Amino acid sequence: MSQKITVSATINADAKKVWNYYTNPENITQWNFADPSWQCPSASNDMKVGGKYAARMEAKDGSFGFDFEAVYDEIKDGESFKYTMPDGRQVQVDFKEKEGQTHVDVAFDPENQNPEEMQKAGWQAILDNFKKYTESN
């Protein structure tokens, strides 16, 4: 398997708010899509080791959609978490606050159906949408 792909963003908010907006299903449904023509109509998050994260992502026109699921392997509350997707790929998310801003790194194992550049662009677009949503709410 290839090396992990990392996407990053610095959010103008403290780590407590950033963690809450990133992990609370009420907020997840507001930002968890890469493009304005998509939506995240539902999300659930059992934030504990062995707990399940699930989000429905779909095109607003109903032409395509999929369920994203994962199980938590490790959680350091307010700092980081790691989860595994059903296909065995892992994701690590880190939150580091400095001077009122929070830097978020998301490192993930790439899948083998799409080019890595496309995967990185998609995950970065979702993280950019998260930044925009968090900073404006």
Automatic annotation (TrEMBL):
<comment type="similarity">
    <text>Belongs to the AHA1 family.</text>
</comment>
<feature type="domain" description="Activator of Hsp90 ATPase homologue 1/2-like C-terminal">
    <location>
        <begin position="12"/>
        <end position="134"/>
    </location>
</feature>
<dbReference type="InterPro" id="IPR023393">
    <property type="entry name" value="START-like_dom_sf"/>
</dbReference>
<dbReference type="InterPro" id="IPR013538">
    <property type="entry name" value="ASHA1/2-like_C"/>
</dbReference>
<protein>
    <submittedName>
        <fullName>Activator of HSP90 ATPase</fullName>
    </submittedName>
</protein>
<dbReference type="Pfam" id="PF08327">
    <property type="entry name" value="AHSA1"/>
</dbReference>
